[in-house]
Design goal:
Layout lengths: L1 H17 L3 H5 L2 H19 L8 H35 L2 H17 L1 H20 L1 H38 L6 H9 L1
């Protein structure tokens, strides 16, 4: 990742010095990613074969362990989208507008838990393979931190809902702050 960022920065600076137009800047990622992909393949080939292997027993175990997580991710993605559909079916246009305004704020905030958990995945994956005590400890800490951050975000959203709605929607959307405070919790 560092190599990709350095190469992207160097390519951008080179194009700026050459006075390039917009299109070459849009294509920077193509040669940079090709270089990084070849370098990654060279490094990985030393330790493991590049061709994928297929073991039915391992895939079944993997699928069984990933199914609960996948279901949770799908449920979190569907929850607010389904709620928009339900509100549009049973509420007035104004109520739907207030709900949609608060939904947008919540939609932006749903990225935070994904970032926190996905940043811990490499540690969890490595420790699950090599050190079960470390895996248990790391899993417990991720869960505890997730609870703390979730509670903090819920209280922050509920407290700052009038300010957030005032900044985003103005006075005409003031009733949406009550909806946002409820959704935040």
């Amino acid at each position: 990742d560092l190599t990709r960022n350095v190469l992207t920065a160097l390519a951008t600076m080179t194009l700026v010095l050459l006075g390039a137009r917009l299109v070459p800047f849009l294509g920077i990622s193509i040669p940079v990613c090709l270089v990084v992909m070849v370098a990654t393949a060279i490094v990985v080939m030393r330790g493991r074969p590049l061709l994928p292997s297929f073991n039915v027993h391992r895939w079944k175990r993997f699928a069984a362990s990933m199914l609960p997580y996948s279901a949770a991710v799908a449920a979190s993605l569907l929850y607010y989208r389904v709620s928009i559909l339900l509100v549009s079916a049973i509420a007035s246009g104004a109520q739907l507008g207030y709900f949609s305004m608060s939904y947008r704020v919540i939609d932006v905030l749903t990225v935070v838990p994904n970032l926190l958990v996905s940043s811990a995945f490499p540690i969890l994956a490595r420790s699950a393979q090599d050190n079960h005590a470390r895996f248990d400890f790391a899993t417990r800490k991720v869960f505890e931190i997730s609870l703390l951050v979730g509670a903090w975000i819920a209280v922050s959203v509920a407290t700052a809902a009038p300010l957030a709605i005032g900044v985003i929607g103005g006075n005409s959307f003031r009733p949406a702050s009550q909806v946002l405070a409820f959704q935040g919790i």
